[in-house]
Amino acid sequence: xxxxxxxxxxxxxxxxxxxRNSVSYFQEEKVLLEAVFVVDERKxxxxxxxxxxxxxxAYERLYIPVSEEMVALNEQINKELTAFGEKCLDIxxxxxxxxxxxxxxxxLRGDPSEELLDFSVNYDLIVLGQxxxxxxxxxxxxxxxxxxxxxxxxxxVLIIPENIPGGDIxxxxxxxxxxxxAFDYYIENLIxxxxxxxxxxSVKKMKVAGTLTxxxxxxxxxxxx
Length: 225
Fold this sequence. Notes:
There is one protein chain. This protein is of the alpha/beta class. It has 2 domains: 130 residues, Rossmann fold; 56 residues. The chain contains 6 helices and 10 strands; from the N terminus they run βαβββαβαβαββαβαβ. It has a 5-stranded parallel β-sheet with strand order 5-2-1-6-7, with helices on both faces. A 3-stranded parallel β-sheet has the order 8-9-10, covered by helices on one side. Strands 3-4 form a two-stranded antiparallel sheet. The longest helix has 27 residues. It is elongated and about 60 Å long. The two termini are 27 Å apart.
């Protein structure tokens, strides 16, 4: 049962929309929705050439002392990023969710994916926007938080696009352990009796899928293969 949800907020329109729409999947349940903004400290790291961490080819240490101006600049950037995060959480406070969800707001610091993964241990679901503030940047620099969390999270992750399409529910089923887990999770937590459930399956797995869908039909669900 989903009771505690984290919504990752980064200031992008997509993150606010995912926050707004997150509880629409759980209208009948009392849930805790916690908006979490992580101040991305990668954006204020002093370049390594100034940190004493670089070496030349002769293994002689290269170190350029950090100037007062650079320190002041980093402090200013840090201050502005923190203020931006607090503003984003204020925006979440003003969003009408149309539900009775309990709401909390948390500001963290560090690498967004690492902090959200650590913070989510005692929660039931992580909700993220499909594209974040840094979506235009390559993942090895910054960005790709959603992909990183999807691949590493021990907690189920729900990615919500900016414009949620209507229509039926599609589940891709390959008969493997992971698809069984995903299928069971949907049935137990997210199934919408007003929508058809369409299962995309290979011919080799038709028998297995047929057994699953037969059970659902007996419970009054509309299922297509």
